[in-house]
Amino acid sequence: KRRAYVKFDDILNNPLMGDWVPARLLDLRVGLVEPELIAFSDARRVPLTSHAMYNAGYKYPNGNGNPLDFDRQVAAELMGIAGDRVRYVVGVTHGTNDSADNNREKDIYYRAAWKVLGGLPFSGSDELEDSLPSTGNWIDNSLTVGFFGYHGFSSIPDATSPGSEYDLDFYRFGVDLRGNWDNLDVSFALSWGEDENAANDGM
């Protein structure tokens, strides 16, 4: 899937701030992006179908409910690295494009990930050997834990009054775990949500 954005790296690392600001503490990304919510990207998936976590719409068998999914959005994201092994993201989006949430309200989302064991820190600050091997340099034996949240408003047709709709206030939260060992990359995620009126049957 196409994405188009502008990214400003390390915007606090400049002469005005001096040398006390850690490198890569704050980046800015603006444009059509895949919100950095979950450990694994749906845009770079191997299967033809989307990861289950990206199909996060909570709907009833009759079709009523919130159709939101974690797909491409026009968004502004602040992100950075703290303490070498912690990465954070905070974003604001309209909730449009591939995600069926066309309204004027802003959605807010966030994520934090901690590389608990092994691997190269997010900052890439570990000392490297004098010469890297010519093969296998993609291997990052590590364990990373993350959590994420999304608070938004979705314009939902009213199931009890055809032709009318209302803004549904909703939340999504989740945790994920990613383990890398040699050529093996295993990810696990769990999410839960709360909708103001999940059945969209009148307010």
What Rg do the Cα atoms give?
A: 20 Å
- Strand tally is 10
**How much helix, percentage-wise, in residues?**
under 10%
Provide the β-strand percentage band.
Answer: 35-45%
Average of per-residue pLDDT values: 77
Widest beta sheet: strand line-up: 1-2-5-6-7-8-9-10
- Biggest sheet features: 8 strands, antiparallel
List the helices and strands in order: EEEEEEEEEE
Q: Quick one: overall form?
A: globular
Q: What structural class do you assign from the helix and strand content?
A: mainly beta
Low-confidence runs of at least 5 consecutive residues: none
Distance separating the two termini: 37 Å
Summarize the structure.
It contains no helices and ten strands.
Chain-wise SSE layout:
Blueprint: E1 4-8, E2 27-33, E3 58-59, E4 65-66, E5 73-82, E6 86-93, E7 107-118, E8 142-157, E9 165-181, E10 184-195
